[in-house]
Amino acid sequence: MMTIEWNKRLRAGTLALALTAALPLALAALPADARDVQRVERGTLVTEDVPAVDEALAERYRAYLNARSAGVLDWTADGAGLLISTRFGETNQLHLVMQPLGARQQLTFKEEPITSGRLSPRAGSADLIYSWDRGGSEQFQLFRQDLKTGAVAMLTDGKSRNQGLLWSSKGDRIAFASTRRDGRNTDVYVATPEQAATVQPLVAETGSWGPVAWSADDGRLLVGKSISVARSQLWVVDVKTGEKTRVKPEMDDVHLSGVGFTPDGKGVVLVSDEAGEFKRLGIYDLAGGKTRWISEEQPWDVEEAELSHDGRLLAYTVNEAGYSTLHLLDMTSLKPLPAADLPKGTVGGLRFSPDGTRLAVSVSRPTAPSDVFVVDIAGRTVTQWTRSEVGGLNTDSFADATLVQYPTFDKVDGKPRQIPAFVYKPQGASGKLPVIIDIHGGPEGQTRPSFSSGVQFWVNELGAAVVRPNVRGSTGYGKTYVGLDNGFKREDSVKDIGALLDWIATQPDLDPKRVVVVGGSYGGYMTLASMTHFNDRLAGGSSSVGISNFVTFLESTADYRRDLRRVEYGDERDARMREHLVAISPLTNAGKITKPMLIIQGANDPRVPRGESEQMVAQIRKNGGDVWYVLAMDEGHGFRKRTNQFYAGMAQAMFFRKVFAGNGNAG
């Protein structure tokens, strides 16, 4: 059965922006009397004003960059082994592991990362279907590989965006989502693998649709429609006729995601926040229209759920202040089962073995990369199946995450609203530490206590404290909190960073004169906005693939996801909102930035086109500011190739060291 994670993937996918063509390089936009820019082209990497790599620092950084991770994707049809994604070389590829801590047999060897794939559930089948794109374009294509012969064939048209792959219960057909019809809407297709490129859509409607789960007899498909982070719908579709029936048609303003059909096919297991602030599990009676809630009411979200193949067991995780807790439920009695204890961190990728006796999960901890663990349901034992290397580093020296809360500018029930944040500090440090504020993207994202080699490098090698806040607008803290930064309230989230600077100034071991801000995507916007609001209180900022002008951003986005972003940021077609968006955009206020900046961008970014970064670089230089620029010609929304990650990470490390030294003693 499919889990609710399709909805997460769809929301992430629908963030994609259309690439604006023929955007000028920032260098070309400089005034004639501007100083010379030191431009270096190294293969597919272009840097401007970035100094030569410090080899001593680079040697230390390589060890952190060599840290691997492993994520579970699927079981083999006989339950003997696991399909995982991990990296041996430049990019992540697919591997098979046939026993705990066994050798990883590499299956794919592409120059681009592959992090998604599913094995056919049919006994004796050697079919693997996976997706990948080129150069970070996110135009994912589906490929089938015969694991016996190694033969590979592309199943889709090579032009559209394809995602959300599901094998049918019998393993003879697949369901997937694609923009093939018009490039604007995401439709649902059902076909044999051979017919995937030519079949007509099962669901062809306006909006972003995707498959969630097949019924046991493969006669029906549970389908989701994403409208915004707070609004989504579920539909049951007859695979033969295409007839659609909406689940909970009276619920328009709720988050509604699917898990799968009940064993008898009479109900649907779903997740909804209709009963309050947080997402709960329920069973919806398709005939009677009633919902029976099957998870406890608590102030935390159910984040992922998975039904066993026979529908008798349900596994789900709850996001408790960022940490994941695993729960098991007997679907016959609807009583909870004792769950095994997993390492404390974040848990994802729930996958039941074909016989339902074991559950594979991916676990990431602040002090250890993501690895695959298998839970024996009856015995409540946990067995580690992969052990990812960390570049020969001693993980005992890694910094653990400490959860804190700090007061911000507004109040709840007469008391200052509290903003949660995770703090990482060097072990045994003394004196006042420089601070790196690391802001997540999304904007409907959440910083979790999971492993980051970059954070550990900053802490252990730069001697910095790292603070990772979940400002308003973050998920995981209820639907009211998610909506606190929408539309005209956008800069309220920036004010939360100002409140964090106030909090840092009260901490005896943190240096308020040596604080930098860093973030990617929406976090990149937050970095740029923080620099315009708090320039005098910050030593510098590093923005990756960040939005610099909301109007140019919205006007450049692909048709199929523009309305989704308008719900969050505001509709630029409305004159009053357009005026507001222009007024708060970092590009409009770039003249307020006098501290150093580092800007990082992928040339093929389909979410935040490179023009957003380059117009900001050009404006800062026009104002006489100091800005380093890193551009990767073979990357998109974030760097996925190890070589590019190395140069971007080194640029950040040298930048932080420079600005820390410029405002006190070096860290």
TrEMBL record:
GO terms for molecular function: serine-type endopeptidase activity. Residues 450-661 form the Peptidase S9 prolyl oligopeptidase catalytic domain. SUPFAM superfamilies: alpha/beta-Hydrolases, DPP6 N-terminal domain-like. Residues 1-34 form the signal peptide. Keywords: Hydrolase, Protease, Serine protease, Signal. One of its GO terms (biological process) is proteolysis. Its EC number is 3.4.-.-. The keyword NAD does not apply. PANTHER family: DIPEPTIDYL PEPTIDASE FAMILY MEMBER 6, SERINE PEPTIDASE S9 FAMILY MEMBER. This is Prolyl oligopeptidase family protein, putative. It comes from Rhodospirillum centenum (strain ATCC 51521 / SW). The lineage of its organism: Bacteria, Pseudomonadati, Pseudomonadota, Alphaproteobacteria, Rhodospirillales.
